[in-house]
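does this look right to u?? adenosine-5'-triphosphate version
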Amino acid sequence: MTMLQIENLTARHGLLEAVRGVSLSIRKGETVALVGANGAGKTTLMRTLAGAHSVTSGHIRIAGEDVTALPSHQRVRRGIALVPEGRRMFTSMTVRENLELGAMAGRSGTWTVDRVLEIFPNLVKRIHSKTGHLSGGEQQATAIGRALMSNPDILLLDELSLGLSPLVVDRVYASLEGLITSGTTILLVEQDLSRAMGVADRVVCMLEGKVVLEGDAKTLTRDAVTEAYFGLD
Ligand code: ATP
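got this back:
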């Protein structure tokens, strides 16, 4: 079953076309890694899917339903949740309040604060701390937890690794494994090519707003992805 369908999507920043005619289809339960150099348009695509950036043309469908015209909060109710680049926490709110906010914005389902704490045990002792006082890794865990509390079918993760130590990144990725096996559909932006190819079923490479390479993570070679990444022929 196709969970997320992106059809000929274009999005602009003023005159600049940051996303130029992107088409992509993601099956239920699939993990897709979006790679590409800085400025390739990955963040703009993620924000456009979540409804945080407007579409110039094209369509976005969630489980067959066209959501292109829906505002972001209604897309959350259709099962799509974004963990934005830089985490964007409400820093004066506690971890628990952030998680509860995620639940309020979302739809009913099986995610609870306790379940989030099971996959992110490092948050247990921080549950009443204001997120502004947390480490980068704890903030990232809170941001992912907040998204999960909306009970998404599709999780959009933009640069989870940004600003985190390799050890913490390992921990954050390890905590995603359970989600992946439980059938959540994941689209993630990852700068580290090895990590992207290790975690994903499929790798999609963007260059100057377009998809220039797409393939199975197991069969694509690192060289092919690197060439696409830099636009080499
Ligand atoms: P990064 O890895 O740096 O986040 P990216 O692949 O996510 O890069 P985008 O952030 O989507 O790329 O940027 C795509 C293009 O749009 C770039 O040329 C960028 O300079 C431009 N851009 C991004 N945000 C804005 C903005 N708010 N206003 C104007 N131009 C922008």
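The pocket of adenosine-5'-triphosphate is lined by residues 13, 16, 18, 36, 38-44 (CB under 6 Å). idk if thats expected tbh
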